[in-house]
Design goal:
The complex is a heterodimer of chains A (about 350) and B (about 350). By secondary structure, chain A is mainly alpha-helical. In chain A, about 75% of the residues lie in helices and about 5% in strands. Chain B has one domain: ABC transporter involved in vitamin B12 uptake, BtuC. The model of chain B has no long low-confidence stretch (mean pLDDT about 85). Chain B has about 350 residues and is mainly α. Classes of the chains: A mainly alpha (about 350), B mainly alpha (about 350). Chains A and B meet through helix 6, helix 11 and helix 13 of A and helix 7, helix 14, helix 16 and helix 17 of B.
């Protein structure tokens, strides 16, 4: 038996620059908020815009989280993800319309239970649809990116057209439940109640997701699977089953995002998911494909920037996101928090 | 001579050869063989779409990258001609300037997108092109004082190319400027198509196919994969812009719906996949079949919907507005079961 080699622990001298570089993605949000404050000038409008930016960011994050995890786990890129957003919105809004008495009443309890039921219905339907989608559309083309993109785009078209068949070709207008209408005023800034609720739901979901990924065994398997799939399988876990579960959960979350977005816009169309996909992709790319935290930061950045720019120069709102993406890809070509794959 | 003209890339199947010849003859003689404005319009559309789809196949079929920005480049060419014709007045110089500037702008933008996204991961390219293309579409509809917004632009093209220019009768058909315009489009498309055929059968084209098969190995042999992919993107963008210019010259109108919409992008994808990825002839067959179906199948579906009016769900499903759904299903099925498309099928039949 040979002696253990000499062990000389060294403490790396991490300079301030390196520390900053590591923390930079997390610092971007406060920096953007402060910059927004100076660019806008009026504190009350700034507060209103910040809240609506956060609300929008949270909703985009809810839609993007599933997509990015699915990619991280199985290298599957799902261009049909937007279809779940649309389906979720249509199912949820149908439930809300059916529960018209509840949403019209001035009771917070009845209002919230109607929204809750709508969300449950939407998530159930999109989750089930996600399962079918995975079996029928995605499964035969594992490992072939080109075919995945083509086939999932085909799936997106078919589902969108089916929405037209079931709900008719017209857009549907929807009123928010009675108690979620209007705004509360705080320090001279009007903040819509619904946006505050959206921020709350988004924050709770993010924390819950982080807890599941960091503290539970299933989260451990998912994270390990993202990093090194074959190794996890070698240890005896059936990654396929985990993957299908993540796919279903991601689809259900897209459905939830669809309901929330529909209530936010107060109008839903079959093409809404397709349009949201643009933002979802931007978020997934700048966050780093496969990274939930990255998607969270990216979504908040996109939401805040879009609202600030829409206030300052309305025509440049969507272009600002492309500019953000370009800037971040120049700074970090793999996205802000890239997933390190052990290969 | 003919083999040289098509760069030695023979169809390699008797049926395919016959089909291609038939298409060539029909398109070359379209003004004399078919009657009516609609038939000529369909023929012109087929020529333009063959060029557009062939350019896309260079990217998707030969290089193996998916782009959603092909209609954006198509639109840049079309808006180039439209803007030049609006501001410079009618004239061939306006058409030329618009075409060249549109193509240049498309190449520059393709270069930028390519360098940004292909440098990292080829899969980013699909997502980034989707984002950029939708941003451009929004911009075009927002800056309505320049682009005409949702209404688009209507402008005049040289009088020689319109039906007001009568040049006597040829073979019992009134030979008007419209027919001259058609031949301008036909010969431009044919020339550019042969050029594309030349490109894919050159050493450069072979490298692209090597990258499609295994980019890692291609890099290891010593080819700069990023460079080749970006070059293919630029070439494909340039052909799309030229096709767009031709389309603008033919229609005398550009608008977001006819040049930039996501639906045209889907149409192009379908044409490439159904015709056959990775062969230029697939683009020809795909475009011909698709444009014909688009023009005439919707009537048929309307009739079917009318006939099944009593059955609630079925009449909804065969409604002419739902034809995109059937195309989507056809698209998925063809990716699964005929990844090589019609051309691949015909060729395999020829060899066994």
């Amino acid at each position: 038996m040979t002696a253990a080699p000499d062990h000389r622990p060294t403490f790396a001298d991490v300079s301030l620059g390196e520390r900053l570089d590591k923390a930079m993605p997390f610092l971007l949000i406060p920096i953007l908020v402060v910059l927004g404050f100076f660019a806008i000038g009026a504190p009350s409008s700034w507060l209103t815009l910040t809240v609506s930016g956060l609300a929008m960011g949270m909703m985009i994050f809810i839609m993007a989280s599933g997509l990015t995890l699915v990619f991280g786990l199985m290298d599957v890129i799902n261009f049909g993800h937007g279809a779940f957003v649309s389906v979720g919105a249509f199912v949820g809004v149908s439930v809300l319309i059916a529960l018209g008495d509840w949403t019209g009443a001035t009771s917070l309890l009845l209002n919230m239970s109607a929204v809750f039921l709508a969300v449950v219905a939407a998530m159930t339907v999109t989750g089930a649809l996600g399962w079918v989608f995975e079996r029928v559309i995605v499964k035969p083309v594992y490992g072939a990116h080109l075919k995945q993109i083509l086939v999932t785009v085909g799936g997106l078209i078919v589902i969108e057209q089916l929405i037209h068949v079931i709900w008719g070709p017209d857009e549907i207008f929807i009123n928010r439940p009675e108690m979620l209408k209007g705004a509360i005023t705080f320090a001279g800034a009007a903040m819509e109640k619904y946006r505050l609720l959206a921020v709350g739901i988004g924050a709770v979901l993010f924390i819950a997701m982080r807890m599941i990924l960091r503290r539970t065994k299933i989260g451990l398997i998912v994270r390990a699977g993202v990093e090194n799939g074959p190794m996890v399988e070698a240890l005896g876990y059936r990654l396929r089953v985990v993957f299908v579960g993540v796919f279903i959960a991601g689809s259900a979350l897209a459905g939830l995002g669809g309901v929330m977005w529909g209530l936010y816009q107060e109008v839903i169309t079959a093409g809404m998911g397709e349009r949201m996909m643009v933002l979802v992709f931007i978020v997934a790319i700048i966050g780093g494909l496969g990274s939930v935290e990255g998607a969270f930061i990216g979504a908040l950045l996109v939401g805040l920037l879009q609202n600030y720019v829409a206030f300052l120069e309305p025509k440049l709102a969507l272009v600002s996101n492309i500019a953000l993406m370009t800037a971040i890809l120049m700074w970090r070509p793999q996205g802000m928090l890239p997933v390190v794959k052990a290969k | 001579m003919i083999v040289r003209l098509i760069s030695g890339d023979t169809p390699r199947s008797p049926i395919l050869t016959a089909l291609l010849l038939l298409i060539l003859i029909c398109l070359a003689g379209a003004p004399f063989l078919f009657e009516g404005v609609r038939a000529l319009d369909t023929a012109a559309r087929i020529c333009i779409f063959i060029l557009l789809v062939a350019g896309y196949d260079l990217l998707l079929g030969y290089t193996g990258i998916v782009s959603f920005a092909h209609t954006m480049f198509f639109g840049m060419g079309a808006y180039g001609v439209a803007l030049a014709s609006t501001h410079m007045g009618r004239g061939f110089d306006a058409l030329l300037v618009g075409t060249v500037l549109g193509a240049l702008a498309a190449i520059v933008l393709a270069l930028l997108i390519g360098l940004f996204s292909l440098r990292v991961r080829a899969i980013f390219f699909a997502m980034i092109t989707l984002a950029v293309a939708s941003a451009v579409a929004v911009l075009v509809s927002q800056f309505s004082d320049i682009t005409g917004g949702e209404d688009g632009l209507t402008y005049k093209i040289p009088r020689v190319l319109t039906s007001a220019n009568r040049m006597g009768e040829v073979m019992g058909v009134k030979f008007t400027g419209k027919i001259l315009n058609y031949y301008l489009i036909f010969f431009s498309s044919l020339a550019l198509f042969l050029l594309l055929l030349r490109i894919v059968n050159s050493p450069f084209g072979r490298v692209l196919q090597a990258i499609r098969e295994n980019d890692f190995r291609a890099e290891a042999i010593g080819y700069r994969v990023v460079w080749y992919r970006t070059a293919a993107t630029c070439l494909s963008a340039a052909t799309a812009a030229l096709a767009g210019s031709l389309f603008a010259i033919w229609l005398r109108y550009v608008g977001p719906d006819t040049t930039l919409s996501f639906e045209i992008m889907l149409d192009i994808l379908l044409m490439v996949v159904i015709g056959g990825m990775g062969t230029m002839y697939g683009a020809v067959l795909g475009a011909v079949l698709f444009v014909l179906a688009q023009t005439y199948l919707q009537n048929l579906m309307g009739a079917a919907s009318h006939a099944t009016e009593g059955l609630p769900l079925i009449s909804e499903l065969v409604d002419p507005d739902r034809w995109l759904m059937w195309l989507g299903i056809l698209f998925i099925l063809s990716v699964y079961f005929f990844p090589t498309g019609i051309v691949g099928r015909l060729r395999r039949q020829g060899t066994t």
